[in-house]
Amino acid sequence: MAKTLRRSAAFTALAQALAAGSRGGPSIGTRLAALPRMIRATARGEYDGGLRLALMTAATAYIVSPIDLLPEIPLAIFGLADDAVMVTWLAGSVLAETERFLEWEARRSQVIPGSVVP
Known about the structure:
Blueprint: H1 2-22, H2 28-44, H3 50-64, H4 72-75, H5 77-109
Helix pairs in contact: 1-5, 2-5, 3-5
């Protein structure tokens, strides 16, 4: 049940992100260009995406790794299905997180740095 909920959340995030781009939201190119800035801001502690970036990095490592939980050769379609689910989740996560980051960047640019004087 939990796996089904996570998969549906990933598919939903992917569909929402793609729909937002087609309705005038950030384009895929803008989102991909935001990735290095998002990683830098997270590394500096300015942006709170550390756990999400770690999960996306782990998913990427799983996808490119030759070691799988469900190997392709003996399990055929089932071995490919886990990779397809991971790719779908990763794509949805990257799209959703970059949109969240771009919104954070826009809000941040409207704030004037300083301190409150009593």
